Amino acid sequence: MSGPSARAPGWSALRVRWYDLATRVAGAVLRLGFGLRMSGRGNVPSSGPVIFVANHQSYLDPPILAVSARARPLAPMAREALFRFKPFGLLISSLGSIPLRDETGDAGAMRAALAELAAGRCVALYPEGSRSPDGEMRPFRRGFAVLVKRSQAPVVPMGMAGQFEAWPRQSALPRFGGRMVCVVGSPIPAATLLADEDSGVARLESVVRELARSARDQRRAALNSA
């Protein structure tokens, strides 16, 4: 299989090109408007199902994940309320977003995510459950382990920094300028995380915390050298 659809099996070439255009525009806005820098993007598998997992700071997180995932279109889980404003709901639906009606567990969202992974595509989620109220990472909920267990897809951890300063949940509008950083970690096989579910959840949380710490260090160094 070759061509644009090879990166997102089951998607038409037109839909992949639309996704690519949207992520290029988002990437330009994030780089020019918010100083986004990324590292580790070569860790993203070029094919097969992938679950992207990251810390959650801001409304800016989903486009940052999409840009950081390179050529792999991904379906982020997004709060159902975001789909209620029809123009925006149609936009994010066209880009693959999955509505999440309950942060503590949504069978419909789980089925949709499993269908994406079974087709060889990618999903993105935030095990903290919602955006951080203070920029600090909170403990991971266990729900994502069910998705890993049922799909057997590898997990690509990501750590981000600077999004809270750019657009905290308490603000209606973003603040342009500054610096944001996303660090992409190495894929973790499902079997590694599922050998012991409790330790697997703790291990993934630890990896994401370390990546977020690296992102903060890179952000601080960039701001100090500016």
Structural notes for this entry:
43% of the residues lie in helices and 15% in strands. The protein is α/β, with parallel strands linked by helices and 226 residues long. The chain is globular. It is built from eight helices and seven strands, in the order H-E-E-H-E-H-E-H-E-H-E-H-E-H-H. Strands 1-7-6-2-5-3-4 form a seven-stranded mixed β-sheet, with helices on both faces.
Q: What's the helix and strand layout?
A:
Layout: H1 13-34, E1 36-39, E2 50-54, H2 61-68, E3 74-79, H3 86-94, E4 98-100, H4 107-118, E5 122-125, H5 143-151, E6 155-161, H6 163-166, E7 180-184, H7 190-194, H8 197-225
Parallel strand pairs: 1-7, 2-5, 2-6, 3-4, 3-5
Antiparallel strand pairs: 6-7
Helix pairs in contact: 1-2
- Whole-number radius of gyration? 16 Å
Distance between the termini: 45 Å
Q: What is the percentage of strand-forming residues? A: 15-25%
Taken in chain order, the helices and strands follow as HEEHEHEHEHEHEHH
- What structural class do helix, strand and pairing data support? alpha/beta
CATH homologous superfamily - what is it? Glycerol-3-phosphate (1)-acyltransferase
Which properties best describe this structure?
Glycerol-3-phosphate (1)-acyltransferase, 7 strands, 8 helices, 226 residues, alpha/beta
Short description:
The protein has eight helices and seven strands. The protein has 226 residues and is an alpha/beta fold.
